[in-house]
Structure formats: structure tokens, C-alpha cells
Amino acid sequence: MTDVGPFGLSVRDQALEADVQAGLAAVEEGLLEATKSEVPFITEAAQHLVRAGGKRFRPLLVMLSAQFGDRYAPGIVPSAVVVELTHLATLYHDDVMDEAAVRRGVASANARWGNSVAVLTGDFLFARASHILADLGPEAVRVQAEAFERLVTGQILETAGPQDGRDPVEHYLDVLGGKTGSLVAVSCRFGAMMSGADDTVVDVLTQYGERLGVAFQLADDVLDIASDSHESGKTPGTDLREGIPTLPVLRLRERAARLGLADDIALCELLDSDLTDDDRHAEALRLLRAHPALEQARRDTVRYAQDARSALAPLPECAAKTALVELSDAVVHRAG
User: Fold this and answer.
1) Which candidate, 109, 117, 106, places its Cα nearest to that of 91?
2) What is the pLDDT of residue 7?
3) Are residues 18 and 145 in the same domain?
4) Which residue, among 299, 308, 311, 313, has the nearest Cα to 329 in the 3D structure?
């Protein structure tokens, strides 16, 4: 029984474990090959985040979803490389938009080489992903194009904010469906599709991935408030300090508007103040950790994770299904 992928997922079936480990190793080789250029500087910049590591969450889902068809089909590993390259490209762009200094424990590309290089490196990775896609056939190109459109739309909607009269929580969940859910869904879709699984199985796994992706991001929202740096591996309250409206904050504002309680309003005012001040930031974290809004956000996370698990019901019982169920349970555990 070995831990693979994020959350320390334990694969209890030796054959499945061997397949997943071999697949992820092949993906790692594919990522390094896909990020090579005749220009050494481009190779260095493109491999910067590849070599920094990461959970490889999306390739893991490709491998597990491929178990429902021919798990050795030739398109599986390349499709996993495509989704990870796409994910990595978005990280380069996100770090420019967020002015991030660190990514995966190393200096971000924009901090090291400047915004222009970071943006162009992200574009280079998108180009390499497209090149691989072209060999996987027109259906794969269409699926990836639709997912990427949703991803970019989610990012734009986040930047624009909710329209007048739109519920901010609903808007945020739509944003996450695009920004995170779309690429996680396509990871499951590619794994099943490339393995030749039945269309019904492909659809089931796509729905699972969409819901799991949103649950995964909501769990991060909860962790940003609830965990300490030892538990989460990152500084707590990072999103809070940067003024990013994650779900616990949105639930707080929703409650303040609905009930008009003085303490809720005061906390909202504190969140609207300059949280680069360490004392204010610490007080905001302390109050949010004790606030019912955090528990509401936990319940939202659990609901999405349970919906992901429920989506798997039509699939036959097997080791891969058990592993996918455990992934959804692990998301709930993270948020707990």
C-alpha cells in the first residue's frame, strides 16, 4: 500500500498502484521532453515549475480514469501531459496577475525573470500542449479547447466580479467551475476517452471531475483560514491578506447582509481595512476561525465532495473506483 498523488492517497491494489506509478513516471518524462527548446533559456524557464514538483493531481486522475478501458492505450500518457502543461501554463499567468513572488517553494518565474518572460513562457507551454493534442485527434482538440475556454472565462469572471443583483456566492462557485473544475473534469474525460471506455463512463467521470475540482478549491479556501503553516505547508491567511474573496469571506458578507449583526458588520469592516498590517491580519484570522461562516464554507466543501462521490455510483466496483472515492473523501478530510 503506497501513497501516490495528492493527499497521500493510498492505493491498496498492487496492480493499480503499479499502473499509476508507471503512468506518472511516463508523464514526468513527457513533461521534461515537452518543455525542451533549442533555446537553452526557454528550456530553463519552461522547466522551472516542472522541476519544482507539484501534486500532479490532474495526471493522477487521467491514470485512474483510464482504468475503465484499455489502461495501456497510447493516448493516455500524452493526454495527461497536455492537462498538466495547461495547468502549469495557467500558473505562470496567474503569478503575473497576482504579482506572486513564490510558487511551489521556489521564486516565481515573474519574480525571477520579469512579467514578460513569465507570460511568454506560459504561452510556450500552451503551444507545446496544442502540438501534442494535434496527434490525439480532432475530438481531443475540441474537448481541450472547450475546457480552456471555460477556464479563461472563469478567470475573467473572477476579475470582473458579479454583475449587479447576482448572488456573490453563486458567482464565485461559477468562477471555480471554470477556473478549476473544467481542467480537472477534462483530466477524467481524457483518461476515460483515450482508454476507449463507454460514453456513459466518460460522462460519469467528467461529472465527477468537475465536482471534485470545485471541492478541491473550496477546501483550499477553508485551509487558508483554518490551518496553521505546519499543517498546510503555506502561510495561513494569504488570500485574506491579498483581499481575495474566498468562500468563508463571502459567507460572512452574506450573513452580515442578511442578519445585520454588529459583530459581523465589524468583521467585514476589518476585512476591508489594510490587512498588510500584521496585527489586523492576525485579528481577522482569529475572528474568522471562530465565525459560523467558516463552518458554512466547510459544509459547502463537503457537499461538493459528496456530490463527486455520488456521481461515481453508476461505475462498476473496482480498485480504481475505490481510489476515486477515497480522493473525494480526502478533500473532505482536508477541509475538516
Assistant:
1) 109
2) 47
3) yes
4) 308
